[in-house]
Amino acid sequence: MLCAGPPSRSEYFAQIPDHFSDLVSGDDVYVPLVGQLALKEYGIHLTQEQYLEKWDKRLFSGRIWGSVDLALDSYRAGIKPPLTGSPGYNKGWNDMGAQMSTDHIGWSAPGLINVAAAMGDDMAHILSWGVGADGAVFVAALDSEAFFTSDMEHLLRRARSVLPANSRYGEMVDEVLRLHKEQPDWRMARQWLAKKNSTGVNFNDFTGLTQGAVVFLALLYGEGDIAKSMLIAEKCTWDSDTNASTVGGVMGTVLGFSHIDPRWSMVLHSESVATAPNRYAVDQQSRGRSAPLQELLPI
């Protein structure tokens, strides 16, 4: 769902659909899933080229977007990483593609935020640079730390510590934390951040800055409720599905797998049909040793 308009005016609702009409899992699922497959095959010291080799085998062009698609096109044309993520070769270098791709890294290094940040930084530069890469580092650290705290402000501050003090992405995180203390209405906070970080209804609205701000607003204003948090992310618009997915990953880690309302998990498809050359069962992977969703999440 890509929407660039103002935040929704409708109130928070608890209705969860009992089915989805789209039978194809989104890239927010299968890009980190393929990353997890790469970790399973090559181990934690896998190279940037090994990531791209796995992408090349399993991701369809036309089912991936922005910096991910551009990086893979460059790799297939003979460009080596990290040039595949640099501004000279990837016009989506500052988008949220890397930010949505590093959940699995945080889950593979629970509590080791510096390890997660280093792995996230290496992976991020396959497809991003600058604020785009910083978003990936931050989310990897966020998911890593989420195993051990349910305090969203503390969680954001801990992840913030892995970024340089002068990081523009880090400054955005600081702004979100300040707004949460000063502004009780998430819609007003969203509009202030949009005015500062967004350039209007165009591709630049999908930068790591705007999308990251939505994720962190949702985590803070969601008050520990996974449904409310994801719905705030969706209602902030822009890349609604990606941001809600990132929020859901963090909140699922905080809560533990068995504490997630089954209405959110029972409607997921059992296969990711967008991976190539063959289908790979999502539920099979979630039970595998390299995908610690059920093994490492607190029960």
Textual characterization of the structure:
This protein has 299 residues and is an all-alpha fold. It has one domain (2-6, 26-284): ADP-ribosylglycohydrolase fold (Orthogonal Bundle). It is built from 14 helices and four strands. It has helices at residues 27-42, 48-58, 66-76, 103-108, 113-124, 130-145, 152-160, 168-182, 186-197, 208-221, 226-235, 240-255, 262-265, 282-286, and strands spanning 2-3, 238-239, 271-272, 280-281. It has a two-stranded antiparallel ribbon. Strand 3 and strand 4 form a beta hairpin. The two termini are 32 Å apart. The model is unreliable at 1-25 and 271-299 (pLDDT under 50).
What percentage of amino acids are in beta strands?
Answer: under 5%
The count of strands amounts to: 4
Mean pLDDT: 81
Uncertain runs: 1-25, 271-299
Mind telling me which CATH architecture this is? Orthogonal Bundle
Question: In this structure, how is the largest beta sheet organized?
Answer: 2 strands, antiparallel
Strand order of the largest sheet: 1-2
Distance between the termini: 32 Å
Could you spell the SSE succession in H and E letters?
EHHHHHHHHHHHEHHEEH
Query: What is the overall shape?
Result: globular
Number of domains: 1
User: If you compute it from the alpha carbons, what radius of gyration comes out, rounded to the nearest whole angstrom?
Assistant: 18 Å
Q: Briefly note the structural class of the backbone.
A: mainly alpha
Number of helices: 14
Q: Please bin the fraction of helical residues.
A: 40-55%
CATH class: Mainly Alpha
CATH homolog superfamily: ADP-ribosylation/Crystallin J1
